[in-house]
Design a protein that fits this description.
Elements (H helix, E strand, L loop, with lengths): L2 E5 L13 H14 L4 E4 H4 L3 H10 L4 E5 L5 H14 L4 E5 L7 H6 L5 E3 L4 H13 L11 E5 L2 E7 L9 H4 L10 H5 L9 E4 L2 E2 L17 E2 L2 H15 L3 E4 L8 H14 L4 E5 L2 H6 L1 H9 L2 E9 L3 H6 L6 H13 L6 E5 L6 H13 L7 E3 L7 H8 L8 H7 L16 H22 L2 H12 L1 H5 L4 H11 L5
Parallel strand pairs: 1-2, 1-3, 3-4, 4-5, 8-11, 11-12, 12-13, 13-14, 14-15
Antiparallel strand pairs: 5-6, 6-7, 9-10
Helix pairs in contact: 1-6, 9-10, 10-12, 15-18
The protein binds cobalamin and iron/sulfur cluster (SF4).
């Protein structure tokens, strides 16, 4: 059985920076459990043209194609699946990942995809492939966690019961198949750090319930053990000589005890490796010690979602933090010379002129720029997605058309407020960003930013330089320059 795994492009206006973890995990498991070496077509890394993709598809007659990605890859999954069926009409296309798992029927009705994985892939994909290996048209009714077309008909879609989440990530999942993806490309385009910077996911799920966030992995986070993470770092050091590891977990700090354990082990085993992670305001605000320990263990950046400077908006988003806690985190970070990479959201339901002013005033008071001010975007599966459906902002009969528009949250696609017109909201964001940026420039000079960055990154800063694309990426997404 010939299997093709496709990683569709993400953020075409930027370089490829992020390993496709989900697909690479699946690749390793296929090798392990089916003894098949799948072909990995990383369109995101290589940015192939349609003609090139067509030639690759024509050169081999794949039986199974696996494709998946984050929210904004919905349109790519559809156009690629149409192309695959034109070239290999008998192949079976299986899709998964955030883009499709919560809207399987919409995808199946509007594309050539045959089967959608509606949850974690580890167990489902292997069971499914074992069944299809015997017969591509086998009966799939016994396989949990999938929706599929019966008799290749879009109007005959069946959804089997969901699969429960795996409970032991170390045992039931695995590290990504680094050999399958072009690590040279990913490692030469850093996300947060300098040098050979790799991203890593060490847990799944998040205890919080922010209304703009899709959280299919539950509110009881599951963690890889510290031993597992250390083994992975050892492998990444040995095989790729990495300089930096960026933890992209939903909430890396969800278990503070694990953070301490990780810092201890990391400091002892890989003292020179620098790292960054996701964090949460309420945790750092009440536990200053954790930032000290993390910094001592080589952490150079904790990224936070501040989201708003208006308490009423934080409450509406169910963010579970206060404006005072955010201020505490800013002063704690500055005290310990850590950057403050924070992102904000404009245009959540209930946003008004007044709440925007409160956010801007908050940034001016606390000397923050607003480089990462995102439009509230109802990505599939989030609570605001269902709000947009309920209020008719997304037509329930045209969900597919809406999903095709999804991209970066810097691009306006929908208005969830009652107080602003579309144009007013776009203009408001622009004004807020400009005023905050002017103020920030008066607060800190670029020389001071360089000195602070150098204190954190040490020799790495001299060993590697960032090109214009990296600097722009950092200013937009990493905010490493916000001290
Ligand atoms: C890294 C990351 C990115 C990277 C890109 C990653 C990539 N290579 O594609 C970058 C930084 C570019 C990014 C950007 C954005 N991201 Co992002 N990102 C993530 C992050 C942190 C990790 C993704 C990941 O690797 N997860 C780990 C793997 C193991 O999980 P997985 O991919 O889901 O895979 C499992 C299953 O889904 C399944 N599976 C996956 N693929 C397939 C395929 C098949 C065939 C099958 C059968 C199964 C299967 O099996 C896997 C193992 O169980 C997640 C949050 C998180 N911690 O997961 C957010 C997340 C995916 N991003 C999200 C969003 C909203 C965005 C943005 C739109 C935000 C923005 N500010 O603009 C942008 C999109 C930009 C653009 N223009 O496209 C949301 C998506 C919500 C949604 N409804 O889809 C998430 C979930 C964060 C959140 N909780 O809100 N992101
Ligand atoms: S935004 Fe962050 S803290 Fe909120 S639910 Fe999502 S992962 Fe958790």
């Amino acid at each position: 059985m010939d299997i093709l795994i496709i990683n569709p492009p993400v953020r075409l206006n930027d370089k490829p920076r992020h390993i496709p973890h989900g697909l690479a995990i699946i690749s390793r498991l296929i090798k392990r459990h089916l003894n098949i070496v799948p072909t990995f077509l990383d369109i995101n890394a290589y940015r192939y043209t349609e003609d090139e993709i067509k030639k690759i598809l024509e050169a081999a007659d794949f039986d199974i194609v696996l494709i998946g990605g984050i929210a904004s890859t919905y349109g790519q999954i559809i156009s690629l699946s149409n192309l695959i069926k034109r070239v290999n009409p008998d192949s079976k296309i299986i899709a998964g990942g955030y883009a499709v798992m919560c809207i399987p029927e919409v995808l199946l009705k509007n594309s050539e995809v045959d089967i959608v994985c509606t949850g974690e892939g580890e167990i489902t994909v292997i069971e499914l492939l074992k069944a299809l290996e015997k017969d591509l048209n086998t009966n799939l009714s016994g396989i949990k966690g999938i929706c599929y077309k019966t008799n290749n008909r879009k109007e005959k879609i069946v959804c089997n019961p969901p699969r429960t989440l795996i409970d032991n990530l170390d045992e039931q999942s695995t590290l990504p198949d680094y050999e399958a993806v072009p690590m040279n490309i990913y490692l030469s385009n850093p996300t947060v750090g300098f040098g050979k910077d790799v991203d890593f996911i060490s847990s799944r799920g998040c205890p919080y319930r922010c209304t703009f966030c899709y959280q299919p992995w539950g509110h009881k986070p599951r963690f890889h053990s510290v031993d597992f993470i250390m083994d992975c770092i050892a492998l990444l050091k040995k095989d790729y000589d990495i300089d930096f590891i960026a933890f992209q977990d939903d909430e890396f700090m969800a278990n503070e005890r694990r953070v301490y354990e990780f810092c201890k082990a990391k400091k002892a085993k890989f003292p020179d490796l620098l790292w960054s992670c996701t964090g949460r305001v309420n945790i750092v605000a009440r536990n200053e010690d954790i930032i000290v320990v993390m910094k001592e263990a080589g952490c150079v950046s904790i990224s936070y979602g501040f989201e708003s400077g208006a308490q009423v908006m934080l409450n509406r988003m169910r963010k579970g933090i206060t404006v005072e806690q955010i201020e505490d985190v800013i002063s704690i970070s500055r005290k310990h010379e850590m950057p403050v990479p924070a992102s904000f959201i404009i245009g959540m339901p209930g946003e008004t002129e007044r709440t925007c002013k409160e956010t801007l005033d908050f940034c001016l008071k606390n000397n923050l720029n607003l480089d990462s001010l995102m439009f509230a975007t109802p990505y599939q599966g989030s609570e605001i997605f269902y709000f947009a459906l309920k209020t008719g902002r997304i037509d329930k009969n045209r969900i597919h058309d809406f999903l095709l528009k999804l991209g970066d949250a810097r691009d306006f696609i929908i208005n969830l407020t009652d107080a602003f017109s579309d144009e007013e909201l776009i203009q408001k964001r622009k004004e807020m960003m400009e005023v905050a940026s002017e103020n920030y420039k008066n607060f800190i000079t670029s020389e001071e930013i360089y000195t602070k960055t150098k204190n954190l990154f040490g020799p790495l800063l001299e060993k590697y330089s960032l090109d214009e694309g990296d600097l722009q990426h950092r200013a937009k997404h990493g905010s490493m320059s916000t001290f």
